[in-house]
Design a protein that fits this description.
- The chain is an alpha/beta fold and 392 residues long.
- The protein has two domains: 232 residues, 3-Layer(aba) Sandwich (Rossmann fold); 64 residues, Winged helix-like DNA-binding domain superfamily/Winged helix DNA-binding domain (Arc Repressor Mutant, subunit A, Orthogonal Bundle).
- Helix content is 47%, strand content 18%.
- It is built from 15 helices and 17 strands.
- The strands form six sheets. A five-stranded parallel sheet has the order 4-7-10-3-11, sandwiched between helices. Strands 2-1-12 form a three-stranded mixed sheet. Strands 15-17-16 form a three-stranded antiparallel sheet.
- α2 runs parallel beside α3 and α9 packs parallel to α12.
- The longest helix has 22 residues.
- The protein starts with 8 loop residues before the first helix and ends in a 6-residue tail after the last strand.
Length: 392
Amino acid sequence: MTRVIKDGWLTGYLAYTQNHEAPENFHLWSALATLSGAIRRNIWIDKGYYTLYPNLYIVLVAETAECRKSAAASIGVKFLRCISDVNIIQGRITPEAMLANMNRSHTNGNGVISQRSDIFIYASEMAATFGKAAYVEELIVLLTELFMTDHFDYETRNKGKFKIEGPCPTLLGATQPDWVVSGLGRLGRDIGIMNRIVFVPEKIRKMRLTTYTMTQADINLKDALENDICHIAELSGPMIWSKDAYATYDDWYMTKPDAKGHNIQDEFMAREHDIALKIAMLLSISINDDLIILQGEMEAAIKLVNIIRNGISCTFMASGGTDEARIGMKIMRSIEKYGPTDRSQLLRRHYHLIRDARQFDGILDILISQGILERTKTMVGALYSIKQDETL
């Protein structure tokens, strides 16, 4: 089996989905999740004290029915199902069921039996997959522990002890912003799952289409994508990076600021150096088979990480279901809609939501301290605007 798409699988995927209503960003990250689920632990980067694999947890975030997030994710999952031995689970899942799926035997073409510990969790609605059952905390703990480990021993309440060798979980989910607060909230932050998830927020769909009829070119491209994802799934071996790619990563990693606080953005920053490498690995295998990360792929991965980091704070402000968090989101949306705004205008727009001016000023201070808003002095007074990420 050889590749068909000359410009790379990811480029072909974005061309295939260009007439879908969902934002291109949703299709981009669904494609990266698909590549992650296809390649599993077949490729890796040796980082000395640990080995890095390209599995990712990706969650598309938008209000209900706004951006077609579940529809976007499902396109990638359909391509993943073309791989005969891929292990996809969908719907509500218990910790025992997840571990059982990761503790299975696989026989290769030569009749050799081995354990397969990869799993692709497809959560078209995170709230439905995780639910509100008593085992949710246990499931979050499992996903946190399994994200980057080579061995995992776990004893369940009803199914005994599981010994997982080489676990490789990948997650592609979709949810509303409120679920991150109500479904994960403080629990998710305390356990540590939040800094392992790539949250991809969007607010508006790319276009509106009553229906779309596939052209022959679309059908041909779909066939090529199916062929190439199966080809990519067979790649195997250690990845290396070119001298220029290493220099780019080293310069970014050594000079990027340390996380200073305890909000979601800072928690993501603590792990973004590994997530950038995971993305670079996927960008590389999307294009060719040589298992070498080039400078352009490293630069693109870093840019994607910077965008995600900035978007996290603008979407969630803080992982806590407080009135201040909800009011903060409304203030951000107001400034995004109307542009830089002075305090008096903001106060008039949101006065009906607040207790008093002191609470309002406190929310503005939080938004500034978290790097979401910036306050600029002008001839007519201070203006509040969305802070742009200077690293982009």
